[in-house]
Amino acid sequence: LVIAAAVASGAVWASVLCGPAGFVRASGRSVTVALRRGLSPEATEPLKSALCPGAHVGCLGIDLASRRRNRVNGTIASVSDSQIVFVVDQAFGNCSQYIHARVSAPGEPRDADGARAAALPPVASALLSEAAMSLIHSADTAFIASCAPDAGVDVSHRGGRPGFLLCSPDGSQLTIPDFSGNRQFNTLGNV
Q1: CA distances, 38 to each of 42, 79, 146 (Å)
Q2: How far is CA 97 from the centre of its chain?
Q3: What element of type H or E holds 77?
Q4: In the 3-class helix/strand/coil scheme, how is 127-152 assigned residue by residue?
Q5: How do 68-79 and 24-27 pair as beta strands?
Q6: 23: buried, middle or exposed (CB in 10 Å: 19+, 13-18, 0-12)?
């Protein structure tokens, strides 16, 4: 599950929450996300501080093995060490176009070579490092979060062949192409 929210500064952050099959459950307009280890700071900061009752969230449930994705936007009702509960304002499916199929063990994020991925702390910087630009250039999958005043938060999948994400030579700009898709403009409509 990719979840996004706006932090106090107004910046929008997204993070990936993983778990075994069924760790996200829906009942009517309520969605419950079970947290096996709580909201670990290394996996969710700076997003963790924004996940509080009343906060708007954008979520993307994505199964990379089956190439299925559903987007859900809503408002957090409650947060505890074991779960997040939010009320759904919008829910809709998206096509599988540009999703690259991959398989990993539930709850264990894997890198492109199948090795267990390590959680890295976020780094705030005006420029991308050489290592960050190399990682971005080799990626075939990315997630983008956006927010518009009084419109809530949205998080979207972007995919393409490695190299579809472009960095300026000095690392000051990231370019994400807008391929033809579902024509809903949920992300770009917020920008």
Answers
A1: 11, 10, 25
A2: 17
A3: strand 68-79
A4: CCCHHHHHHHHHCCEEEEEEEECCCE
A5: unpaired
A6: middle
Give the model confidence (pLDDT) of 82-121 as tens digits.
Answer: 888 988 887 776 666 666 677 765 555 555 555 555 555 6
- Return the closest-CA partner of residue 83 out of 36, 27, 20: 36
Per the structure block, which two tokens stand in for 60?
Answer: 């993307």
**Using only C-alpha atoms, what is the Rg of the chain?**
16
- What single letter denotes the amino acid at residue 148? A
Contacts of residue 55, Cβ cutoff 8 Å, sequence gap at least 6: 5, 6, 75, 76
pLDDT (tens digit per residue) in 36-50:
655 555 555 677 888
The pair of structure tokens assigned to 140 is 């075939």
Cβ atoms of 149 and 141 closer than 8 Å:
no
